[in-house]
Every structure is written in structure tokens, then in C-alpha cells.
Design goal:
Layout (H helix, E strand, L loop, with lengths): L5 E6 L9 E5 L9 E5 L17 H10 L6 E5 L6 H5 L10 H19 L9 E6 L1 H12 L6 E5 L5 H8 L1
Parallel strand pairs: 3-4, 3-5, 5-6
Antiparallel strand pairs: 1-2
């Protein structure tokens, strides 16, 4: 496996204020790989930009390849810094949650661009979303509200406490 990271672009998401987001990807290994869209993209590769430690997903992808399994193309969506709570929450807290808009942007704009730029799977079993904490909450929201797009969700320690546990009640 070649260790390559593509910086696909910096996108301004129309509904969200703050810095642009970037999509980083793991290498394509020939056959169309599944796609894993990850919130909190700054956590994907190392500890430096992360608040509480990196996930090192490229190591997991390398291990999958070494075992003869298909590694996903990993698309990292960095959070908006001070806007993170509003951006990743689907519910009103101090401000209106923007996760519904973020998910719509992912489905309507980001996913088609990824599919045009990279040879990836288009089926439900080959399309997942993930994140941790607020990113885990946003991933759970994306999977529950767009099961026609995201066939799986990797929700690491999701912030189910948000909006008085409204996610558990909806």
C-alpha cells in the first residue's frame, strides 16, 4: 500500500460560518474501496492538531490492506473551531444546530465530488460516516436521518447528552 494523502480541497459550506473544511483521503488500492466520511478530520492522522489524541486511521487502513481486506477511502471533514458545537449538533442549544445543513451539504455536494474524483463504491454497504464526541453525535444523526446514503456509522463516544439527550428521544 502506498501512503498517500490527497488534500482534495478547502470547501466553504454555505450554511456554516468559520474556516473552510478539507477532505483528506487514503489511497485507492485498485478495486473500488468503501468510503468513510469522518467528522473532526483533524483527529484522523496524528496527535498534533487533536485536542485529545489522534485516531491514526491510516494505520488501521494499512493493517486492513496487509490483511488482504479493503481499506476505506477516508474523507476527513475538519470542524469549525469555535463553531464546532453549533456545526455538529443537530439540535438547538445556545444557537440553532447546523448538523442537518452539514449533512445535506455532504450528500448534495461533497459526496458527488468524491465520487467524481475517486473510484469508490456507491452502495450503502460501502458508505459510512463517523466521528467522536460531537462528531459521533453528528455521525449518528447523519446515519439515522439519511440511511439511504450512509449504510453504517462509527460513533465513538457520541455526545448523547446534547440538548438534554434529545437524540435518544427522537
Amino acid at each position: 500500500m502506498h501512503d498517500r494523502i490527497h488534500i482534495f480541497g478547502v470547501f466553504q459550506i454555505p450554511w456554516l460560518k468559520g474556516p473552510g473544511r478539507s477532505a483528506s483521503t487514503s489511497p485507492d488500492t485498485g478495486a473500488p474501496p468503501p468510503v468513510l466520511y469522518m467528522f473532526d478530520g483533524q483527529n484522523i492522522f496524528d496527535d498534533e492538531p487533536s485536542h485529545s489524541g489522534g485516531w491514526y486511521l491510516h494505520h488501521a487502513a494499512r493493517d486492513l490492506c496487509a490483511a488482504g481486506e479493503a481499506a476505506p477511502l477516508i474523507v476527513g471533514i475538519d470542524h469549525g473551531g469555535i463553531y464546532r458545537m453549533r456545526e455538529l449538533s443537530p439540535f438547538r442549544m445556545r444557537q440553532r444546530g447546523q448538523a442537518p445543513h452539514l449533512v445535506r451539504w455532504m450528500v448534495d455536494e461533497l459526496q458527488p465530488q468524491i465520487r467524481r474524483a475517486f473510484h469508490v463504491r456507491h452502495d450503502l454497504a460501502g458508505t459510512a460516516v463517523g466521528g467522536s464526541s460531537l462528531g459521533g453525535l453528528a455521525a449518528l444523526y447523519a446515519h439515522w436521518h439519511r440511511p439511504d446514503v450512509f449504510g453504517a456509522a462509527l460513533c465513538m463516544s457520541p455526545s448523547l447528552w446534547v440538548a438534554r439527550e434529545k437524540m435518544l428521544k427522537s
